[in-house]
Amino acid sequence: MLQANDREGWEFVTSLSNCTQLQELDIGNNVAFTGQLPTSIANLSTTLKLFWLDYIRVSGSIPSGNGNLVNLELLSMANTCISGVVPESIGKLGNLVVLEMYDTPLSGLIPSSLGNISQLSKLNAYNGKLEGSIPASVGKLRNLITLDLSMNRLNGSIPKDIFRLPALLTCNLSYNLLSGSLPSEVGSLENLNGLYLSGNQLSGEIPDSIGSCMVLEWLMLDNNSFQGTIPQSICNIKGLSTLYLSMNKLSGTIPNGIGSIRSLQYLYMAHNNLSGTIPTTLQNLTSLYELDLSFNNLQGEVAREGIFRNLTEFSITGNNELCGGIPQLHLAPCHNNSVKQSRKVQLRDIAIILGIASALFFLGLAITLILFARKHKSCIRPSLAEKQYGRVSF
């Protein structure tokens, strides 16, 4: 419950500049710290490695002099009222490993100098007011493991350079104003564990190369304008647990191979233009907790086993051509099977009749040939005179 405001309380930061061997400073989680962030933090010892000033009510802007803290490895300003732009001087913090700026009103562009922080492994700047495009220099952060710029006002296309980061495990760019297509270079992220692109304006087809992200567990592409069919290669991601494709313009059928992703827990494909039948293989997914296929153009019979047993776990509303399923769905009964069965019976009867008719035809033909042969033989039987006298030619 320490207190500080614009009138008094922040003097201790100035006095800490005399601590020449200071390596860690944590003033976070003091809700009574208010007022402007003092510029004197730039005068702290260059030996400082860890600096937390998160979860306090301090305001003002990030002092441009923070670039003097050249040995800083962790800087957390999360959940504060710090506003203004991220200064270009941030790029001088070449040893920074963790940078947290989430839940702040920081605005303006992401400085391109960010790409100079070669040791950076975690960049969390979600839920802010950052705008403009994502600088391509982010692709220079070869040690980056976590990139979270979600819930900002970023626009433009996603730089291809991001999808060439070898160590990237989590990429969250959801709920921005990003447009354009998803680059095929996404398949280069062999270690990617989570890709979150929900709530943007992305379009084009989902690249087939997505299937190369073999360890992907979370794939969130909902609330965009993706078109075309669902790539079959998604079925190759055997560890996939969450697949969100709702609120797009996807067409074609649901790949049967999705039923082979045994780890799948959440599958959302609602509000698209999908057609064809619901793969019966989905009922074999024992880990599937939620399934939403509503508001598409699906047709045919609904399965009754697996997730399709419990009405609260799946939704197929808005598909008027579906039939069957559990009674609680109140769908029309399927007649396809009975029709097919009757057709099979008819075809079988026709085959039997044709078989009997063919047999009778060939039997009659054989009898006719035999009778004809006998009659022809009797006509050329030799006479008594011919037996006594040899037949000679003229």
Q: What's the main sheet like?
A: 13 strands, parallel
Uncertain spans: 337-342
CATH homologous group name of the largest domain? Ribonuclease Inhibitor
Give the end-to-end Cα distance, rounded to a whole number of Å: 143 Å
Q: Give the overall average pLDDT.
A: 89
The CATH class of the largest domain, by name, is: Alpha Beta
| SSE-based structural type | alpha/beta
Q: If you had to describe this structure to a student in words, what would you say it looks like?
A:
This protein has 394 residues and is an alpha/beta fold. The protein folds into two domains: 11-337, Ribonuclease Inhibitor (Leucine-rich repeat, LRR (right-handed beta-alpha superhelix)); 339-388. Helices cover 14% and strands 21% of the residues. It has three helices and 23 strands. It has helices at residues 11-15, 336-379, 384-388; strands spanning 24-26, 50-52, 74-76, 98-100, 107-108, 122-124, 129-132, 146-148, 153-156, 170-172, 177-181, 194-196, 201-205, 218-220, 225-229, 242-244, 249-252, 266-268, 273-276, 290-292, 297-302, 314-315, 321-324. Strands 1-2-3-4-6-8-10-12-14-16-18-20-22 form a 13-stranded parallel β-sheet, with no helix packed on it. It has a ten-stranded parallel β-sheet with strand order 5-7-9-11-13-15-17-19-21-23, with no helix packed on it. The chain is elongated, with a radius of gyration of 38 Å. It starts with 10 loop residues before the first helix and ends in a 6-residue tail after the last helix.
What are the SSEs and their pairings?
Blueprint: H1 11-15, E1 24-26, E2 50-52, E3 74-76, E4 98-100, E5 107-108, E6 122-124, E7 129-132, E8 146-148, E9 153-156, E10 170-172, E11 177-181, E12 194-196, E13 201-205, E14 218-220, E15 225-229, E16 242-244, E17 249-252, E18 266-268, E19 273-276, E20 290-292, E21 297-302, E22 314-315, E23 321-324, H2 336-379, H3 384-388
Parallel strand pairs: 1-2, 2-3, 3-4, 4-6, 5-7, 6-8, 7-9, 8-10, 9-11, 10-12, 11-13, 12-14, 13-15, 14-16, 15-17, 16-18, 17-19, 18-20, 19-21, 20-22, 21-23
